[in-house]
User: Which sequence fits this backbone?
């Protein structure tokens, strides 16, 4: 079956800010060619490495973000390689880049310059703070974006004295921007294909993507002029909320979301607890009322804590879900891989062959399932410069066509 983006060709001239967007486009069928310097992008030098052997082709970090792509090497700081790059543009639909604003203009590779010769070209630029404004030349890391974007301020602990804000797992800022970039590129392709036949420049600032995605803190300030407070493994809120995480008999933890329960679900929860003789005072009819329950939530949590300590996490999880309670165990990575719902039914993890190593590895699978335009990792991540010969011939052919065209004129 034809893939959703089959026939679309993308030149990815970038590193850690472009790689996730490029991967999503490539896995949906676009031909994505990663343009790297002869030393490779920085991501190739980030560990961990296969067999702990540092090498530009061994980075597991690079592997994850660069499936289904091709790789060519060009040194765009050299005029001869810039000519090769522009010689490819007639065959491509999209340029995805993350250079510091101004550099491409110095090389005459900016959108304004290129669009005069290639009016249907779409260029997506992902930078820390955008192409314009007083911060456009500022540098960033994932941590600084999570700090300045507000994410770090709402993550932390309320049961640890003087606990500082913390950050989620690395890469979140770039991943958020990658999602928005992929959406923007597909939208621009729609616009072009809907009869306009015109490309455009998409200016993505990581800072704006992160700030606009921060949960709760902005709305609470906008509407109530209040700051949210950090809560241990719970949503940040202006006021203290009740505990959601409890330890189970098997020493695992489970998240028991005990708010926003209607009367039916509350009664089913109490009946379950009562069937084990562990309902405590929760059979008191006053607990059916949301307000009473909210103001006495510590009592509810005490009952749930004792109940969880007496039962296995998987039992609690599955029974809770059977009575429509949104509870879930806190899982480790290996447990995710072993989950048959993900691995067998949803194909959330797939095997990718690395022919150069005569070995296959498990990769994250499709984030979405299309019944007519399938998602697929079509190839392992490319070796550095693996496709140089293929695109050298493309460039030479394009150059010969240009000369022929000039003679005809």
Assistant:
């Amino acid at each position: 079956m034809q893939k959703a983006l089959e026939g679309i060709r993308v030149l990815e001239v970038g590193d850690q800010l472009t790689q996730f967007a490029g991967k999503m486009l490539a896995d949906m069928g676009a031909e994505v060619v990663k343009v790297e310097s002869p030393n490779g992008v920085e991501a190739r030098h980030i560990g961990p490495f296969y067999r702990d052997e540092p090498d530009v082709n061994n980075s597991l970090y690079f592997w994850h973000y660069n499936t289904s792509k091709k790789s060519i090497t060009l040194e765009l700081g050299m005029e001869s390689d810039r000519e090769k790059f522009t010689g490819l543009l007639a065959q491509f639909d999209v340029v995805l880049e993350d250079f510091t604003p101004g550099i491409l203009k110095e090389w005459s590779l900016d959108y304004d310059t290129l669009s005069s010769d290639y009016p249907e070209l779409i260029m997506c630029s992902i930078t820390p703070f955008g192409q314009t404004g007083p911060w456009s030349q500022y540098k960033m890391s994932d941590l600084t974006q999570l700090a300045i974007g507000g994410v770090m301020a709402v993550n932390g602990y309320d049961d640890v004295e003087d606990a500082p804000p913390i950050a989620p797992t690395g890469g979140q800022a770039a991943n958020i921007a990658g999602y928005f970039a992929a959406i923007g590129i597909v939208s621009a392709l729609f616009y072009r294909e809907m009869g306009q036949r015109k490309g455009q420049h998409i200016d993505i600032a990581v800072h704006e993507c992160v700030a606009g995605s921060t949960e709760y803190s902005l709305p609470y300030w906008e509407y109530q002029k209040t700051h949210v407070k950090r809560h241990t493994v719970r949503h940040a809120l202006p006021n203290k909320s009740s505990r959601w995480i409890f330890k189970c008999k098997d020493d695992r933890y489970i998240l028991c979301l005990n708010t926003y329960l209607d009367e039916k679900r509350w009664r089913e929860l109490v009946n379950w607890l009562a069937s084990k003789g562990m309902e405590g005072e929760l059979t008191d009819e006053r607990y059916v009322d949301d307000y009473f329950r909210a103001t006495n939530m510590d009592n509810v949590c005490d009952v749930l804590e004792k109940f969880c300590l007496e039962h296995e996490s998987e039992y609690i999880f599955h029974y809770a879900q059977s009575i429509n309670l949104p509870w879930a165990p806190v899982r480790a990575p290996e447990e995710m891989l072993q989950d048959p719902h993900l691995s067998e039914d949803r194909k959330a993890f797939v095997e990718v062959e690395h022919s150069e190593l005569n070995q296959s590895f498990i990769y994250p699978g499709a984030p979405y399932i299309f019944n007519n335009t399938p998602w697929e990792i079509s190839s392992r991540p490319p070796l550095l410069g693996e496709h140089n010969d293929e695109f050298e011939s493309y460039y030479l052919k394009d150059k010969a066509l240009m000369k022929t065209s000039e003679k005809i004129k």
